[in-house]
């Protein structure tokens, strides 16, 4: 009888525990205080943006929150739709790396109307009243640094430009390069083309330019993936005499510079961009004031100042 009583009590306890378990929403309890933040990049087919996303995600998750990242694969229409989705699912803040710095405005207006703050990263937007903060490298200075190195190490030449005119960062880099190089009339731009900053586009574009203008002996690329595309095209025709400049400082291009296959790059710090953007996001969410724009310095990396110890890291 005593055994039966003990078993009955045990069953009651188990039943009560099971009832409590099935009627308690543990996922809701765990997530009810977690904020959702969104990040929409122009592409994640670039290690630069992967590093930025990694840094933002680390900060967000250290706060116990959730970062939802999207890759529109260089489609402004898709990027607009992804921002609309972010608004609908109730994110509290959006990081935006615009595919097109002017055409992204309608999506930014929707976020503004929904009272969702937006932080621009890596490249500006046309109407900065629609973002609370912009975190970028000093892109104009990056172009100037490449030109200064060229002026110091060459007396003249024929230049090809690899551009991405939908991105304000690219426009500023190319303009900085052109403004500085204009100081010496022995340099002449003989060809320029769009490549969206993508290696697989830059390579055939460079092949066409060098075929049409074999006198090209200098390439200024808006970023390192484009520079690597140019180098691949030049290597295929055994043109090792062409000076190639880029912007980013990815480990692969550092190695090319160290081995003297590439001339120089203006190094950025995607880790710092990501950390600063995330830090400012939490200040905004806390109702604290933040800077309207943060410009980070770039550092020219060339064979003269790069060492084997620098090759693996990306600041």
Topology:
Blueprint: H1 2-22, H2 26-31, E1 36-40, H3 47-62, E2 66-70, H4 76-88, E3 93-96, H5 105-113, E4 118-121, E5 133-137, H6 139-153, E6 157-163, H7 168-181, E7 187-194, H8 199-212, E8 218-221, H9 224-236, E9 243-248, H10 251-258, E10 264-267, H11 270-285, E11 293-296, E12 299-302
Parallel strand pairs: 1-2, 1-3, 3-4, 4-5, 5-11, 6-7, 6-8, 8-9, 9-10
Antiparallel strand pairs: 10-12
Which terms summarize this structure?
Rossmann fold; 315 residues; 6-stranded parallel sheet; 46% helix; elongated; 2 domains; alpha/beta
Q: Could you please describe the fold and organization of this structure?
A:
With 315 residues, the protein is of the alpha/beta class. It folds into 2 domains: 30-136 and 270-295, Rossmann fold, CATH 3.40.50; 139-269 and 302-310, Rossmann fold. 46% of the residues lie in helices and 19% in strands. It contains 11 helices and 12 strands. It has helices at residues 2-22, 26-31, 47-62, 76-88, 105-113, 139-153, 168-181, 199-212, 224-236, 251-258, 270-285; strands at 36-40, 66-70, 93-96, 118-121, 133-137, 157-163, 187-194, 218-221, 243-248, 264-267, 293-296, 299-302. The strands form 2 sheets. A 6-stranded parallel beta sheet has the order 2-1-3-4-5-11, with helices on both faces. Strands 7-6-8-9-10-12 form a 6-stranded mixed beta sheet, with helices on both faces. Helix 5 links the parallel strand 3 and strand 4 (118-121). The longest helix is centred in the first third of the chain and has 21 residues, at 2-22. The chain is elongated. The termini are far apart. 44% of the residues are buried. Mean pLDDT is 90; it is low at 1-30.
């Amino acid at each position: 009888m005593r055994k039966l009583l003990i078993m009955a009590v045990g069953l009651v306890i188990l039943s009560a525990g099971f009832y409590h378990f099935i009627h308690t929403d543990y996922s809701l309890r765990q997530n009810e205080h977690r904020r959702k933040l969104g990040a929409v990049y122009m592409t994640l087919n670039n290690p630069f943006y992967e590093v930025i996303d990694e840094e933002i995600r680390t900060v967000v998750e250290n706060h116990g929150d959730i970062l939802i990242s999207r890759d529109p694969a260089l489609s402004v229409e898709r990027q607009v739709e992804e921002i609309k989705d972010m608004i609908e699912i109730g994110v509290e803040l959006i990081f935006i790396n615009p595919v097109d710095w002017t055409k992204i405005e309608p999506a930014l207006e929707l976020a503004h109307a929904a009272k969702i703050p937006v932080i621009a990263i890596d490249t500006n937007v046309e109407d900065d009243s629609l973002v609370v903060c912009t975190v970028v490298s000093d892109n104009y200075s990056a172009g100037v640094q490449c030109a200064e190195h060229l002026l110091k190490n060459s007396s003249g030449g024929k230049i090809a430009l690899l551009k991405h005119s939908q991105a304000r960062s690219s426009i500023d880099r190319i303009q900085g390069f052109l403004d500085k190089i204009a100081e010496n009339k022995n340099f002449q731009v003989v060809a320029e083309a769009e490549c969206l900053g993508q290696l697989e586009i830059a390579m055939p574009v460079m092949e066409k330019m060098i075929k049409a203008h074999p006198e090209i002996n200098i390439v200024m690329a808006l970023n390192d993936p484009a520079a690597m595309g140019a180098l691949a095209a030049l290597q295929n025709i055994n043109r090792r005499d062409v000076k190639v400049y880029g912007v980013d400082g990815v480990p692969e291009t550092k190695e090319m510079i160290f081995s003297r296959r590439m001339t120089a790059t203006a190094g950025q710090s995607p880790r710092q961009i990501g950390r600063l953007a995330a830090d400012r996001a939490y200040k905004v969410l806390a109702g604290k004031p933040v800077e309207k724009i943060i410009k980070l310095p770039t550092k020219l990396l060339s064979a003269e100042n790069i060492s084997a110890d620098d090759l693996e890291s990306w600041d």
